[in-house]
Amino acid sequence: MNSTINYYNNNAKEFCKGTLQADMSRCRNMFLKYMVPNGHILDAGCGSGRDSKEFKELGYEVTAFDASEEICRFAAEYLGQEVQCRRFEDVIEENCYDGIWASASLLHVAKKDLPEVLARLKRALKEDGILYASFKYGENEKMRGERSFSDFTEEQAKQLFFENGFEVLEFALTGDVREGRADEMWCNVVGRK
After folding, report:
1. Could you tell me the pTM of the whole model?
2. C-alpha distances in Å from residue 176, one per residue of 24, 65, 169, 183, 187
3. Three-class SS of residue 97?
4. Running DSSP on this structure, what letter comes out for residue 94?
5. How far from chain centre, in Å, is Cα 192?
6. Which of 15, 48, 133, 175 is deepest in the core (most CB within 10 A)?
Protein backbone atom coordinates (compact mmCIF):
# COMPACT_ATOMS: atom_id res chain seq x y z
CA MET A 1 0.00 0.00 0.00
CA ASN A 2 2.86 2.42 0.71
CA SER A 3 4.08 2.31 -2.89
CA THR A 4 0.51 3.06 -4.02
CA ILE A 5 0.26 6.07 -1.70
CA ASN A 6 3.71 7.24 -2.81
CA TYR A 7 2.56 7.02 -6.43
CA TYR A 8 -0.43 9.26 -5.71
CA ASN A 9 1.67 11.71 -3.68
CA ASN A 10 4.19 11.96 -6.53
CA ASN A 11 1.56 12.24 -9.29
CA ALA A 12 -1.31 13.99 -7.48
CA LYS A 13 -1.82 17.00 -9.72
CA GLU A 14 -1.59 15.03 -12.97
CA PHE A 15 -3.82 12.24 -11.63
CA CYS A 16 -6.48 14.60 -10.29
CA LYS A 17 -6.60 16.73 -13.43
CA GLY A 18 -6.91 13.52 -15.49
CA THR A 19 -9.97 12.35 -13.55
CA LEU A 20 -11.86 15.61 -12.93
CA GLN A 21 -13.74 15.45 -16.22
CA ALA A 22 -14.56 11.73 -16.06
CA ASP A 23 -18.34 11.36 -16.36
CA MET A 24 -19.35 9.19 -13.40
CA SER A 25 -23.02 10.21 -13.55
CA ARG A 26 -24.24 6.69 -14.36
CA CYS A 27 -22.59 5.22 -11.27
CA ARG A 28 -23.47 8.19 -9.06
CA ASN A 29 -27.13 7.83 -10.10
CA MET A 30 -26.98 4.10 -9.41
CA PHE A 31 -25.89 4.96 -5.84
CA LEU A 32 -28.07 8.02 -5.25
CA LYS A 33 -31.35 6.36 -6.14
CA TYR A 34 -31.04 4.37 -2.89
CA MET A 35 -29.88 7.32 -0.76
CA VAL A 36 -32.06 9.41 1.54
CA PRO A 37 -32.41 12.98 0.21
CA ASN A 38 -29.79 15.39 1.57
CA GLY A 39 -28.16 12.60 3.59
CA HIS A 40 -24.57 12.41 4.81
CA ILE A 41 -22.11 10.75 2.40
CA LEU A 42 -18.58 9.59 3.21
CA ASP A 43 -16.44 9.82 0.06
CA ALA A 44 -13.89 7.16 0.99
CA GLY A 45 -10.78 7.59 -1.14
CA CYS A 46 -12.13 10.75 -2.75
CA GLY A 47 -9.30 11.38 -5.22
CA SER A 48 -9.74 14.76 -6.92
CA GLY A 49 -12.99 15.46 -5.09
CA ARG A 50 -14.98 15.28 -8.34
CA ASP A 51 -17.81 13.16 -6.91
CA SER A 52 -17.86 14.96 -3.54
CA LYS A 53 -18.45 18.21 -5.42
CA GLU A 54 -21.35 16.68 -7.36
CA PHE A 55 -22.90 15.33 -4.15
CA LYS A 56 -22.56 18.71 -2.42
CA GLU A 57 -24.17 20.49 -5.37
CA LEU A 58 -27.12 18.08 -5.06
CA GLY A 59 -27.58 19.04 -1.41
CA TYR A 60 -25.82 16.18 0.35
CA GLU A 61 -23.55 16.66 3.35
CA VAL A 62 -20.14 15.26 2.40
CA THR A 63 -17.18 14.09 4.46
CA ALA A 64 -14.20 13.21 2.27
CA PHE A 65 -10.89 11.48 2.87
CA ASP A 66 -7.96 10.09 0.92
CA ALA A 67 -4.73 8.33 1.94
CA SER A 68 -2.54 10.64 -0.15
CA GLU A 69 -1.61 13.96 1.47
CA GLU A 70 -1.03 15.60 -1.90
CA ILE A 71 -4.37 14.43 -3.28
CA CYS A 72 -6.07 15.70 -0.11
CA ARG A 73 -4.56 19.14 -0.73
CA PHE A 74 -5.81 19.20 -4.31
CA ALA A 75 -9.30 17.94 -3.36
CA ALA A 76 -9.65 20.36 -0.43
CA GLU A 77 -8.89 23.30 -2.70
CA TYR A 78 -11.26 21.99 -5.39
CA LEU A 79 -14.08 21.36 -2.89
CA GLY A 80 -13.53 24.35 -0.67
CA GLN A 81 -13.68 22.18 2.44
CA GLU A 82 -11.42 20.02 4.57
CA VAL A 83 -10.42 16.65 3.14
CA GLN A 84 -9.12 14.31 5.80
CA CYS A 85 -5.88 12.43 5.20
CA ARG A 86 -6.52 8.91 6.45
CA ARG A 87 -6.79 5.28 5.39
CA PHE A 88 -9.66 2.83 5.52
CA GLU A 89 -8.27 1.34 8.75
CA ASP A 90 -8.71 4.79 10.34
CA VAL A 91 -12.49 4.70 9.85
CA ILE A 92 -13.79 4.33 13.40
CA GLU A 93 -17.13 6.14 13.18
CA GLU A 94 -20.28 4.27 14.10
CA ASN A 95 -23.79 4.78 12.74
CA CYS A 96 -22.72 8.05 11.11
CA TYR A 97 -23.31 8.03 7.34
CA ASP A 98 -26.35 7.46 5.15
CA GLY A 99 -24.05 6.35 2.34
CA ILE A 100 -20.42 5.57 1.59
CA TRP A 101 -19.03 6.19 -1.89
CA ALA A 102 -15.83 4.18 -2.53
CA SER A 103 -15.20 4.82 -6.21
CA ALA A 104 -11.95 3.22 -7.44
CA SER A 105 -10.52 3.21 -3.91
CA LEU A 106 -11.22 -0.15 -2.24
CA LEU A 107 -9.49 -1.70 -5.26
CA HIS A 108 -6.16 -0.75 -3.65
CA VAL A 109 -6.90 -2.85 -0.53
CA ALA A 110 -5.43 -6.37 -0.46
CA LYS A 111 -8.18 -9.01 -0.77
CA LYS A 112 -7.22 -10.53 2.59
CA ASP A 113 -7.80 -7.13 4.25
CA LEU A 114 -11.13 -6.32 2.59
CA PRO A 115 -13.36 -8.11 5.17
CA GLU A 116 -11.94 -5.97 7.99
CA VAL A 117 -12.26 -2.80 5.91
CA LEU A 118 -15.85 -3.63 4.92
CA ALA A 119 -16.68 -4.31 8.58
CA ARG A 120 -15.40 -0.81 9.43
CA LEU A 121 -17.43 0.77 6.64
CA LYS A 122 -20.53 -1.18 7.66
CA ARG A 123 -20.20 0.06 11.28
CA ALA A 124 -19.84 3.62 9.99
CA LEU A 125 -23.12 3.36 8.07
CA LYS A 126 -26.49 4.08 9.62
CA GLU A 127 -29.12 1.34 9.56
CA ASP A 128 -30.03 0.61 5.91
CA GLY A 129 -27.05 2.73 4.81
CA ILE A 130 -25.79 2.36 1.24
CA LEU A 131 -22.28 1.38 0.08
CA TYR A 132 -21.01 1.83 -3.48
CA ALA A 133 -17.68 0.37 -4.57
CA SER A 134 -15.95 -0.15 -7.89
CA PHE A 135 -13.14 -2.48 -8.90
CA LYS A 136 -11.26 -3.11 -12.12
CA TYR A 137 -12.61 -6.22 -13.82
CA GLY A 138 -10.41 -9.29 -13.39
CA GLU A 139 -9.64 -12.07 -10.96
CA ASN A 140 -6.30 -11.43 -9.30
CA GLU A 141 -4.27 -9.06 -7.20
CA LYS A 142 -1.55 -7.39 -9.23
CA MET A 143 0.82 -4.48 -9.45
CA ARG A 144 0.21 -2.00 -12.25
CA GLY A 145 3.32 0.12 -12.25
CA GLU A 146 3.81 1.28 -8.64
CA ARG A 147 0.19 0.66 -7.59
CA SER A 148 -1.39 -2.50 -6.18
CA PHE A 149 -4.86 -3.57 -7.33
CA SER A 150 -7.40 -6.17 -6.25
CA ASP A 151 -9.48 -7.03 -9.32
CA PHE A 152 -12.92 -8.65 -9.17
CA THR A 153 -15.33 -10.41 -11.50
CA GLU A 154 -19.08 -9.81 -11.19
CA GLU A 155 -19.57 -12.97 -9.14
CA GLN A 156 -16.60 -12.23 -6.86
CA ALA A 157 -17.74 -8.64 -6.22
CA LYS A 158 -21.27 -9.72 -5.35
CA GLN A 159 -19.91 -12.48 -3.12
CA LEU A 160 -17.60 -10.00 -1.35
CA PHE A 161 -20.58 -7.82 -0.44
CA PHE A 162 -22.80 -10.76 0.54
CA GLU A 163 -20.17 -12.44 2.73
CA ASN A 164 -19.58 -9.17 4.56
CA GLY A 165 -23.21 -8.56 5.46
CA PHE A 166 -24.44 -6.34 2.63
CA GLU A 167 -27.56 -6.91 0.56
CA VAL A 168 -26.54 -6.45 -3.08
CA LEU A 169 -28.99 -3.97 -4.59
CA GLU A 170 -27.43 -3.41 -7.97
CA PHE A 171 -24.45 -4.38 -10.11
CA ALA A 172 -23.15 -2.92 -13.36
CA LEU A 173 -20.21 -3.75 -15.58
CA THR A 174 -19.06 -0.50 -17.20
CA GLY A 175 -16.29 0.71 -19.47
CA ASP A 176 -13.73 3.21 -18.20
CA VAL A 177 -15.10 6.71 -18.83
CA ARG A 178 -11.69 8.36 -19.17
CA GLU A 179 -10.56 9.25 -22.65
CA GLY A 180 -8.73 6.49 -24.49
CA ARG A 181 -9.52 3.79 -21.90
CA ALA A 182 -12.92 2.49 -23.00
CA ASP A 183 -11.53 -1.06 -23.30
CA GLU A 184 -10.90 -1.21 -19.50
CA MET A 185 -13.86 -2.70 -17.64
CA TRP A 186 -15.11 -1.92 -14.11
CA CYS A 187 -17.31 -3.82 -11.64
CA ASN A 188 -19.71 -1.46 -9.83
CA VAL A 189 -21.65 -2.71 -6.80
CA VAL A 190 -24.27 -1.04 -4.63
CA GLY A 191 -25.16 -2.70 -1.35
CA ARG A 192 -27.32 -2.00 1.68
CA LYS A 193 -26.30 -2.56 5.30
Report:
1. 0.95
2. 10, 23, 22, 7, 10
3. strand
4. -
5. 15
6. 133
